[in-house]
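To assess whether the prediction recovers the assembly geometry, we first specified each molecular entity separately, as shown.
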Amino acid sequence: GIQVEQSPPDLILQEGANSTLRCNFSDSVNNLQWFHQNPWGQLINLFYIPSGTKQNGRLSATTVATERYSLLYISSSQTTDSGVYFCAVGPVDSSYKLIFGSGTRLLVRP
Amino acid sequence: DTEVTQTPKHLVMGMTNKKSLKCEQHMGHRAMYWYKQKAKKPPELMFVYSYEKLSINESVPSRFSPECPNSSLLNLHLHALQPEDSALYLCASSQENRGISYNEQFFGPGTRLTVL
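The predicted structure of the complete assembly is given in tokenized form:
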């Protein structure tokens, strides 16, 4: 089945710093989502981005489907950005499945 | 309304108990999902319902029994669970028109289950 790898696995930032999170996937996909899981366990939708570039405030994401990777950019990080960031992809042979990467655990220090 | 709700938030149960987890969405979505998430791991798919019919069962043990009474509600009935079933249980939903799934999934806040 499709493999999803995220890097780095852990990241510590000082408040105000910028960062880039990466998601590589091993096969073609028809869906790619980025989520932020807060300390209470809620999975918050950040982007639905099977291809192209999107921006939402301090966050932006780019997916290059032909090269099988996606990037999540966080600018001017805040302590509330702490948590786990998951990339999840939908294989082309399934309308429903989302395959999650192992996540990037982010800690933003004040 | 772009919200998926789950009750209860926390649940502690013994191995002989029967309990149910509930999930509700009012986004008009016709696909609903149950996921299980262990600590420091990503969510894992358990079940998918499409138009109130079970579409995917990821070889989940029969002590977990899903039910979709209508297009807005999804239940997960629990019976004779084991301590290793302790986890965060997440519900999700996505839009679907017959033959075409949009598959952008929206998640509820989860139920944190502890089995003693």
